[in-house]
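stage 2 :: seqdesign
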């Protein structure tokens, strides 16, 4: 008897970092991620990436919950408050899983130790690209104050399909040579943690800004070498970024454009959604809340570039 497999339910995640106050670009990414899931009766998880503890501040963590509430964006899985996050969802609670993934790379002899500082790398490479200084040094992985880097064969390119951009090819060996997989403090790096979390959560749609396409390529490389087919089979959307008047992408260090400052200046939820609609050229849709954004949202005609703030 023939039985057909039930289609896998779409699941995506909103994954901010508590390293600064969120800005318009973050709000747009949240809106896109949420709309893509809700259009297809999918699930949305909130995952807060807090491994960058040097920049973590409690007010940045609170700002994530405040922003989602302000926007009226709901989610199906994840922390409901800063305390719930600390107790049950912090990435620091998932370190053993990250180390297990790292061990898989060590067993394949793909990892080596590198004590080079950023200033040393910059002195050798004006663009800041790692010049493979320690690849053949044979330093012990237990060397003090050394990061771990992964060997990426010369000429390595990563190709994947993007639901918005079509076929994308990233020259990983050229643009992100032998990237760090474990920091000098012994904490697994972002690329490891993000891949591991997506696998553990069953995420099959990953929505990011175009500036993170290199991270997607890095994580696909890691997935290919750890047999993580759930990630290599996932769908990807890399959306355009909102830029400031000087043409640069919005940054969390630009507090004047943070959502918290805009709220203090009187911005209401209706005004935020109207501003997002204007940036996308969707003024005619009379977008004033999450539901009206969802009603207008259509990925195939999403703009490839976004107007400046």
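stage 2 :: out
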């Amino acid at each position: 008897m023939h039985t057909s497999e039930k289609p896998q339910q779409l699941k995506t995640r909103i994954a901010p970092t508590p390293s600064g106050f969120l800005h318009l670009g973050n709000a747009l990414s949240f809106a896109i991620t949420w709309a893509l899931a809700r259009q297809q009766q999918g699930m949305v998880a909130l995952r807060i990436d807090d491994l960058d503890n040097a920049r973590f501040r409690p007010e940045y963590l609170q700002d994530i919950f405040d922003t989602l509430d302000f926007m009226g964006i709901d989610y199906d899985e994840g922390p409901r408050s800063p305390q719930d996050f600390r107790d049950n969802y912090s990435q620091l609670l998932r370190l053993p899983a990250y180390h297990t993934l790292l061990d898989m790379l060590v067993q394949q002899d793909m990892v080596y130790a590198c004590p080079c500082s950023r200033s040393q790398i910059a002195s050798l490479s004006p663009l800041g690209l790692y010049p493979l200084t320690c690849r053949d040094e044979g330093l012990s992985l237990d060397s003090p104050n050394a990061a771990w880097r992964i060997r990426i064969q010369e000429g390595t390119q990563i190709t994947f399909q993007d639901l918005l951009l079509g076929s994308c090819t990233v020259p990983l060996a050229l643009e992100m040579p032998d990237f760090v997989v474990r920091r000098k403090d012994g904490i697994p790096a972002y690329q490891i943690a993000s891949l591991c979390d997506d696998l553990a959560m069953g995420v099959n749609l990953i929505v990011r800004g175009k500036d993170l396409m290199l991270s997607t390529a890095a994580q696909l490389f890691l997935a290919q070498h750890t047999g993580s087919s759930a990630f290599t089979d996932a769908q990807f959307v890399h959306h355009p970024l909102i830029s400031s008047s000087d043409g640069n992408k919005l940054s969390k260090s630009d507090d004047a454009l943070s959502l918290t400052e805009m709220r203090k200046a009187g911005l209401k939820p209706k005004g935020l959604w109207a501003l997002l609609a204007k940036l996308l050229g969707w003024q005619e849709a009379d977008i004033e809340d999450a539901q009206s954004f969802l009603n207008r949202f259509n990925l195939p005609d999403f703009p490839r570039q976004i107007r400046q703030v």
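stage 3 :: structure notes
- The mean pLDDT is 93.
- The two ends are 59 Å apart (CA to CA).
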